[in-house]
Inverse folding.
């Protein structure tokens, strides 16, 4: 495996203010545990309720053959648990992936993120917070409006692992920096072969949950709300993020080059800051 | 109780009150110490300085959460307790141990950071003891305390029933000296290193340093702050004119600054492996299984913590 060229990086911030850093530093959340104790229902009931709410009662087909959901069996670092979702459509199936929704059933706010993707994207990797022993679901929506679900079980780690930031000063100081990396697996790859890239944004993604048992599930304070990435003029990745996405949101994904010469990204957080960056497409060799 | 009432005819309200007071106080005493707690075993590591060496293990019901090295320093006026252990029960056993060595009051309870094996016993120390910690400690214990109480419940069970989150009221912004009476302790708060509320305590008279979890021996170092910060802190710690150290985990006392060498080697290996994996584009999940693998034979609890350390280091270093 070779690394595809040097990393490029550019950042711009609009609407940055000192208040953001203060909010990040002060956003004390007691609710990672209190929320869980409120969710005393059986795991299956949790999922049924979440699925009904999030997908408006739509039918979810068994996706165990179509979707791969990879997570470590034990969440080593509760604040940074890697997760990979892949759509594996069989040869001849002309449908494409439209979105992937990641649900961590027992987290205070179960929907970690929805990723809307361009037609060439088949894999999304990111990192999430895991609060306790939980089932995790990935729901794929295909181009024919069908929903498929895959499920995995993850054990939260013991020790001093906790799902919150461990270096708050650092987080506030670098708010909004965006980095983009392009990988290739094979230096002789064709220009049209699938590639992988990674976008990461420095942001505390602080849940900011209040202790209100009723509203805490859905009211975030200071997180990256939306991250969008274009290849040329084509939107290839759009994340609508929640509080379960780890500090410094980080997404690695597969895509097909479309001949464009630039990537462009825009992120918006819950305080209205907009962060932007653009990078030239790197050659595969 | 019934037999007692019958045997003593109660005639005056004053007498009734007295009898009830006696009964109440007996009841209270019985509730508080239903069993006689065995004092924690102590090592004397210097004049007036005692340490209980924790087990090299994860916290559980059998070990009562007593996995960290905790201790105390005695001055002419009173005692400073340094960390309170992983349960109120452990802390009460520390109180018993202190009372076997001195009658002086506990003036200060110093927490070296926010992790449960160091702070869960806090509530065993009533006023006038003043709680002392780094400027980040109040935030850390309030934010993480409820999470820890929840996540350690399966391992610790009813031992956690009495635990209360007690934040410090005396804050160390960078340095602070506490006088215990002809005995000065120099406290210093550090950048994010092992955690982001690390505090060391240096006894000026003996040159003994309580390092908290900035120093690990035998027990694999646990990274919950910043790997770059910790390595920088290690370089600065090495310059302290200490004679010996009480590590947060490991033996109760170790020579200084040689005690820093094993963890420095581990953290440097972890850092260089992560940097190399990042450069090669290896995803974090795979990298967490590879980084610092060569250090396995040197540490206890390697399987429990190395992948976690690698994950934390990787996600920090990819932003260099």
């Amino acid at each position: 495996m070779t690394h595809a060229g040097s990393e490029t990086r550019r950042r711009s911030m609009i609407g940055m203010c000192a208040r953001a850093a203060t909010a990040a530093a002060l956003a004390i959340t007691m609710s990672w545990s209190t929320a869980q104790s409120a969710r005393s229902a059986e795991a299956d009931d949790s999922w049924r309720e979440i699925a009904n709410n999030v997908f408006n009662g739509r039918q979810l087909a068994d996706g165990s053959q179509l979707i791969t959901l990879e997570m470590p069996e034990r969440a080593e670092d509760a604040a940074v648990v890697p997760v990979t979702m892949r759509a594996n459509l069989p040869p001849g199936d002309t449908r494409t992936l439209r979105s992937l929704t990641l649900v961590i059933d027992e987290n205070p706010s179960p929907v970690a993120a929805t990723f809307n993707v361009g037609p060439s994207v088949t894999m999304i990797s990111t990192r999430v917070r895991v609060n306790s022993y939980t089932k995790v679901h990935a729901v794929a929506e295909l181009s024919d409006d069908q929903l498929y679900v895959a499920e995995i079980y993850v054990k939260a780690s013991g020790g001093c692992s906790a799902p919150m930031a461990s270096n708050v000063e650092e987080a506030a100081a670098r708010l909004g920096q965006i980095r983009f990396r392009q990988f290739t697996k094979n230096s002789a790859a064709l220009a049209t072969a699938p590639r992988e890239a990674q976008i990461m944004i420095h942001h505390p993604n602080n849940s900011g949950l209040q202790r209100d048992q009723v509203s805490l599930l859905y009211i975030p304070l200071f997180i990256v709300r939306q991250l969008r990435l274009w290849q040329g003029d084509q939107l290839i990745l759009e994340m609508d993020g929640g509080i379960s996405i780890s500090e410094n949101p980080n997404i690695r994904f597969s895509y097909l080059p479309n001949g464009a010469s630039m990537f462009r990204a825009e992120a918006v957080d819950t305080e209205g800051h907009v962060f932007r960056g653009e990078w030239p497409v790197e050659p595969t060799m | 109780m019934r037999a007692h009432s019958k045997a003593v005819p109660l005639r005056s309200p004053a007498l009734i009150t007295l009898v009830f007071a006696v009964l109440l106080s007996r009841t209270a005493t019985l509730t508080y110490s239903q069993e006689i707690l065995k004092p924690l075993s102590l090592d004397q590591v210097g004049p007036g300085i005692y340490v209980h060496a924790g087990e090299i293990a994860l916290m559980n019901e059998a070990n009562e959460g007593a996995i960290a090295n905790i201790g105390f320093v005695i001055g002419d006026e009173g005692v400073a307790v340094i960390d309170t252990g992983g349960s109120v029960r452990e802390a009460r056993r520390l109180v018993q141990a202190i009372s076997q060595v001195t009658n002086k009051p506990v003036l200060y309870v110093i927490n070296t950071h926010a992790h449960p094996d160091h702070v869960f016993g806090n509530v065993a120390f009533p006023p006038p003891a003043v709680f002392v910690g780094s400027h980040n400690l109040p935030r850390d214990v309030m934010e993480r305390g409820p999470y820890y109480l929840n996540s350690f419940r399966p391992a610790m069970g009813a031992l956690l029933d009495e635990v209360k989150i007690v934040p410090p009221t005396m804050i160390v912004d960078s340095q602070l000296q506490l006088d215990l009476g002809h005995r000065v302790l120099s406290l210093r708060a550090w950048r994010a290193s092992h955690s982001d509320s690390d505090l060391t305590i240096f006894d000026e008279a003996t040159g003994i340093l309580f390092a908290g979890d900035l120093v690990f021996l035998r027990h694999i170092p646990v990274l919950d702050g910043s790997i770059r910060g910790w390595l920088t802190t290690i370089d600065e710690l090495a310059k302290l004119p200490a004679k010996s150290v009480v590590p947060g985990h490991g033996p109760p006392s170790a020579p200084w600054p040689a005690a820093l060498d094993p963890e420095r080697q581990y953290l440097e290996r972890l850092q260089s492996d992560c940097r190399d994996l990042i450069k090669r584009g290896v995803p974090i999940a795979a990298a967490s299984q590879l980084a610092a693998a060569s250090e396995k034979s040197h540490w206890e609890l390697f399987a429990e913590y190395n992948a976690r350390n690698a994950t934390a280091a990787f996600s920090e270093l990819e932003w260099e």
